[in-house]
Amino acid sequence: MPELPEVEVTRLSFAPAIAGANILNVQVGKPLRWPLSCNPQSLKGRKVLQVRRRGKYLLLDLSHGILLIHLGMSGSLTFGKQTPVAGKHDHFDLFTDHGLLRLHDPRRFGAVVYADSESDALAVKLLGRLGVEPLEDSFDPQVFALGLKKKHAPVKQVLLAGELVVGVGNIYASEALFLAGIRPTTRASRISKPRAFKLHQAIRQVLASAVEKGGSSLRDFSNAQGQNGYFQLQANVYDRAGLPCRACAAPIKRLVQGQRSSFYCPLCQKP
DNA sequence: CCATATACCTGGCAGC
DNA sequence: TGCTGCCAGGTATATG
User: Fold this and answer.
1) A38-76 per-position pLDDT tens digit
2) What pTM was computed for the model?
3) Which residue is nearest to nucleotide C12 (CA to C1')?
């Protein structure tokens, strides 16, 4: 589900409300992708200072230590004063004096991991290899263009790998490549500097636009207040195989790269 | 080092 | 109704 826009929308929807909250209790459900790595009860009495984001991870800064939350493919958070009984897919509950933060994740590819700090070995293992943030100034077009030159793989897979730039998942990779007029199969190393600049701009534009639209709610995503996003309504290619391109009316094509679906317009996007 | 395949897990849907 | 096969927003790990 969640790529950078969905994670950021989630963060924005509960960060102000949880800031300063005291942790009263923690309840864990079925195992997630990785173990919490601490006794849940040891978090009682700590305070949630703020919520940051790095790539597709949320970082809850506690008065001591941090919680890294990843939503995997099907995870979503809710935060509120009410405490509905935990359903079969609710696997992590953080009770605070500001309300309950709950992770709902049917497929359990998500995770909540405790680390003493960002320099903790566990945190470094998860965050250490991430590329630059696409919506920050550190996402430099020149560096991006040079980075692409060094990769022989198809550009779609280079974007998904998250080593050059983080946060671009399966939806927004296809959408950004459409905006840039580049086919997903094009070898990254063969992308000229002007086209790399265009892709750089397209990535920023599509991610920023998606945050603005509240993310994409294809199946089950909603923010921590339970509100759906509506970026999917303006997707140009994602999940539109066989439908007419919004720009030229040619049928959108689907192909599989690295076991993931890619979508593109055969006329608007050049090799 | 690189590129590709596999694994984790559940649910929804189309087709029979 | 129920079965089967395929598909799904991610990514660490194994394999060649």
Assistant:
1) 999 999 999 999 999 999 999 999 999 999 999 999 999
2) 0.97
3) A126
